[in-house]
Structures are given as structure tokens and as C-alpha cells.
């Protein structure tokens, strides 16, 4: 069971049938899971960035506490999520999402690069932005702003040596907008042999 400090809504089982955050933390699976930030509709972008920074720290702490390993590298990224057929996309409920974008990022990139898992931290929907600012309707660009702010924070404010992102290049943007876009971190644990060597030198 996750410790009290690490228990989050994303650790519960979901109808998606994919790995839960709890299972990912225990190292039972190498896949993707959810530890979602509950974005308030009336919160500012600064508040959302701060919440995502907190979720990055919380997620890494939970992974390390439950696995007994050290996270050696993490990469911040974004991708799209569509609504399931017959459902309305809800940013705080992954059970309403089609996960093709997330699955493709995991299987097509991070799993091949030796990452241990991917954790989705938050989502933005078009409906949420329309409600807040009628002139801000492009949820893809909004999430791009959140991603850039997170990378900048860990690269230049915390100077985190474990951050794998080496640029603010947004990559290829979609021509047609999806219902929502998500922010995630992918992570690698320190090699057990390296940990053993480090302990022997102290």
C-alpha cells in the first residue's frame, strides 16, 4: 500500500485497465499511470505551474519510497488525449479519455529508450479554457506553455541534474486539436550496480 504521503486519486484502479500509480510505484509494471493534479477552473496559470512542480516532486518521492530505488533521470513532456466514445472529456478523470496519445508516447519513445514508466500529471481541456478566457481556446498551446514553464523551472531554478530535457523545442504540433492535452514525466531509476558502487565508496 502507498504510504499516507503518497496516496493520491491516481493510484486507484480505473476502467482503462492500465497500470495504476500504486502498481507503478511498487515496480510491478513498466508502463504509464496517472497522478493527476486537480486544476481548479478559477486558478491562475502561475498556480497551475506551482501545482505541477509540486506533483513532479511528489511523484518522484512516491516512486523512490515505494520502490526503494533512486530516480536518476526524468523527462517532462506533453501529448494529446481524446474523449471516449459517448463521453465528455473531463480533465480530472482519465476514465473519460482515449489513451492512444499517451500509449504511443510510452511505447513508441520512452519504453524503447529504457525508461521505467510514465506518469501523467495533469490535463487541460478546451472547455476549461473557454470558460476562463473566451479568447484563449487553443488548449494545445496552453499545455505547451505549462510544459515550457516546468522545464525552465527544473533546468534554471532548481538546476536539477536529473532533468533529461535538453531544450525547449516544442516538437511537432497537431494540425487539428484534440479534446485535451496532458503533461507527464517519464522516469528512469539509477542502475542497481551504480547504487551498489556508490554505497561501497562511502
Give a verbal description of the structure.
Helices cover 37% and strands 18% of the residues. With 202 residues, it is α+β, with helices and mostly antiparallel strands. It has one domain. Strands 1-4-5-2-3 form a 5-stranded mixed sheet.
Distinctive features:
single chain; 202 residues; alpha+beta; five-stranded mixed β-sheet; 5 strands; disordered N terminus
Could you provide a short overview of the structure?
The protein is α+β, with helices and mostly antiparallel strands. It is built from 6 helices and 5 strands, in the order H-E-H-E-E-H-E-H-H-E-H.
Secondary structure topology:
Elements: H1 21-26, E1 32-34, H2 45-67, E2 71-83, E3 97-98, H3 100-110, E4 117-125, H4 126-132, H5 139-157, E5 180-189, H6 192-200
Parallel strand pairs: 1-4
Antiparallel strand pairs: 2-3, 2-5, 4-5
Helix pairs in contact: 2-5
